Input
Amino acid sequence: MNIKTTYTQLNSDNILYEIRRNPINIYNFKNIVYKSEPNFLTKINNNNNHEKVKEILLYDNKLEIPIDCSLVFKEYKKEKVMNYIRKKTYIYKIMSMDNIGHFFIDNLIPIIKMIFIDQNIMNKTLSSINRNINIILLKSYNETEKQQSIWKKHLEYLLPFTENKVQFLSNYPNYTLFEDVVMCSLGIKRVCWTQKNDNDNCNIKFITSIKKIYYNFYNITENPSPNKIIILSRQNAKHRKILNENKLFDTLNNKYNNVELIQFEKFNLQQELQLLNNTLLFITPHGAGVISAFFIPQNSTCFIFHPKGYTFECDFPTIYKIYIKRLNINIIQYENNDKRDICRNNIHVNRDKHFYVNIEEITRLADKVMVKIINKDT
Output
């Protein structure tokens, strides 16, 4: 059987890669064979480091693969094809998925960008998305298996975009021929850590379209008059626990009586979105949970407090702000000034330490948001 592998680069100019955690180039490959490598092939990655690879896509000889995808390709030597996948397939080399923030920013948004660009969704109606596709995750071998586990909630986030089972490439039989594959750059390059404002309206449309897709899929209509205060608890988290979060809850709830202290790991995605849709003020420590503010209504407020000594300008706080502001959601960022929160010499220690928050100051800032409801009711 003569298999000809080809590829083309897709034009991704209509959705800029303005954040370094997003892919750089997107390619459409025709006729690629999957082969597992039980003995762990060692290859040189884009950073000139050795990386062990056991999920390899094969191509016919004489095809030059783009440098940013070459890590997972090698010469196709006419191995016998045993299985055929004719359905459009999106393959993404995942980064760490061990918290929902990393999953959302490092994996979900780039996968959605591939789908939008390949299907030209920005120039079509959202209902035109083809969900009869495969989404396949390619393992990143510089991270542990635990970091790359697929959670139930990961799958819930992908449901609006595929009606098929999400799997790792290694779940497929050896010598599987994929007839139509879209892949993106497989490295994360810091040179892309710039925000390009020249086409920001398009990026706003992209982010707001994603939110609409989730609302439509879960039959949610955006609430124009939300009134809840949600405090995100990190009591089950490894880092950044708020040591007086119960007192913070009691203080705000005694004043407003519409406050909930929430651990979202106990909710499925639909329950989480329904609650967030009624949220006027979302209060959270810096961390992965900030990304839940993506789903509060327009003109609501996300209140993020940082441990003392951890700047607002690091990568994740900056990425959060870009996404949330594009959704027309207000942001308050507050560096904790409780005297029990000691500033350490190491920024990473400051980022991850448990700390007491200044409840009086947080209440004062919350009052500025809630006064809108008070004035409206009176």
Summary: Residues 189-195 have pLDDT under 50 and may be disordered. The chain has two domains: 6-212, 228-377. Residues 228-377 form a domain with the Rossmann fold fold (CATH 3.40.50).
